[in-house]
Here is the input.
Amino acid sequence: MSTTFLPCGIYHQEYAKEHAWWQTPFIKGKMILLLIILFFIIPFFADSYGLSLCNQISYTILGAIGVQLLIGFCGQITLGHAAFLAVGAYTSALLILEFPWPAFMLDWGLAYPVSIIVAALMAGIWSVAFGLSSARVKGFYLILTTMAAQFIIVDFIITQYVSQIGGRGQAFSIPPETIKIGPIIIDSDLKVYFMMLFFVIICTAVLANLVRSKVGRAWIAIRDNDISADVMGINVIKYKLIAFFVAGCIGGIAGSCWISNLAAISPEHFPWSWSLWLVGVILIGGVGSIHGTIFGSIFMVLVMEGLQLLVIPLADIYPKLLMDFLFIKEAAFGLAICIFMIFQPYGLSYRWQQLKNYFNLWPFSY
Amino acid sequence: MELFLMTIVTGIMVGGIYALVALGWVLIYKCSGVLNLAMGEMTLIGAYISISFYSMGMPFLLALFLSLIIGLILGILTERIFLDKLIGEPILSVIMVTVGLSFFFKGSLELIWGTDTKVFLPPVFPLEPIHIGPIIIGQAYLWSFIAAIILLICFVCFFKYTRWGLAMQATADDEMAALSLGISARFVYAAAWSIAFISAGVGGTLLGNINGLNISVAHLGLLVLPVVVLGGLNSVPGAIVGGIIIGILQNLCGAYLDQYFPGGVKEIAPFAFMAVFLLFKPYGLWGWERIERV
Here is the structure.
């Protein structure tokens, strides 16, 4: 990956400036514009369809950040991340539905926020439990272990046992007005949007800052070569497990946020293909780049929606197409991954970086 | 005791089919180093093609043969279009391309054949079970096992005695040396993929004879992974023995553990076993242990 150059004629005179997030006035302006768009323009000008799309994108970002951390920054390939999303969602739902909350906590609307925190910790612990094997195995063997995590957690423990709690059958339906933060009941797309946006920004900021701290440098060293990282004095197992824990926590947050958008959760919301989808998202966006997670999520969700919009007019001519749309989506996703891996292995974020460099270096591009 | 014997025998029979599919997997890995997660869908492709020909009224063997020829062509095409360009890329890229392929195949299969369960009508193998002493075996199981064993023997002979098989073995052992001896590595990769398609197709067809065919047969492609981990990723005998062991294990768990943990123990047992096994012996029973250097 190339580095992003500074625009022509701008030089840093202090070390602190070199580490700043927003290094030039232009970037500062750009980011503030982005925040204004996110907080004021989208929520008040988009219709409910647009908002639900945004929520889907936010959920994909939250899920994919954990995968990006594990694969892109720590080099631990995981194909079972949906399991940790499921752990988060189910922990949160169970806490809301079954836990005997004291009355004042319900009145103040603390049940859901507390359940998000507990869900994050729970998912982190499960993630570490399955990440323990990374101490001994790596590469393809680790992939198999994380796959086993998916099958054991979702297809066995959650489907067979957790779903039986409370005698609700397969799906946990979440009654309206139980999900509230403080006095606000999360019941519309707009409120979900703000909540998801909050968590996306927090998680992205946490990951971005972790990556440039001691922990993150250790992760990157492990990703690049774990034996040399060990020789340099990095406690490889400890940092791998930290990576699994943080990724699990973010996954748990994603899962427990998503239940506010669903009327009912069931194991079918967290299939193995969703884990693969998340990995596909970061591959298309770009491995090892936080921008990449976001670009990949936006790209995948929008392309799939675009495909759907394309199918609807065609359905008049060929009505079977509408029924088979799910299959077309699957095939298109598969083909997209193959094409990206073959022709664009660095992902969308690499193109973005090249674009930025082009404008930064213009007119002297050498 | 009878239950135990029955379970073991059924396990061996099913294990034969697993071994057949696992053989294809091991071949691809051995020859080209690609870790293939699209095996289940490859199984389905062969099975669906042969069931289509069979329901058109062709004799079973002819239908199977035609499906194998189509599998061969598909194998070459898949290798040429998608995987040829990825030789030497990082493991994640290669795996994700096979994942992408599996999504692509699965979507296309569902688009073409739908999601309903299809059966071989009229049944290829007679329905009356065979009694051997106290043990009762379905004829479909028995014939599938026999077919699997015959094919396995054919493959082993192919690798030991034919020119192409020897070329494939040489490439698996040392690609550079094989290239310098004038073996075309690209030909070998294509051959590995088409053989994998063939063995997966036969496995799928046999399994379709037992339970009928729908999209969930693709689960077989995931069951292959515990098999190859147990046997060692690059060992052909390992795949065969591993397949039979996993078949037995699965049936034993279904028969004995199901009463304690109701639900899908049978489906989950191979993966749980694999997760534990990996911790103790990641290279499997006969796999090559790789020593890593900086």
About this structure: The interface with chain A takes residues 35, 82, 85-86, 89, 91-93, 95-97, 99-108, 110-111, 222, 225, 229, 233, 261-265, 267-268, 271-272, 274-275, 278-279, 282, 292-294 of chain B (CB under 8 Å). The CA atoms of residues 11 and 249 of chain B lie 7 Å apart. Strands of chain B lie at 130-132, 135-137. Chain B has a mean pLDDT of 83.
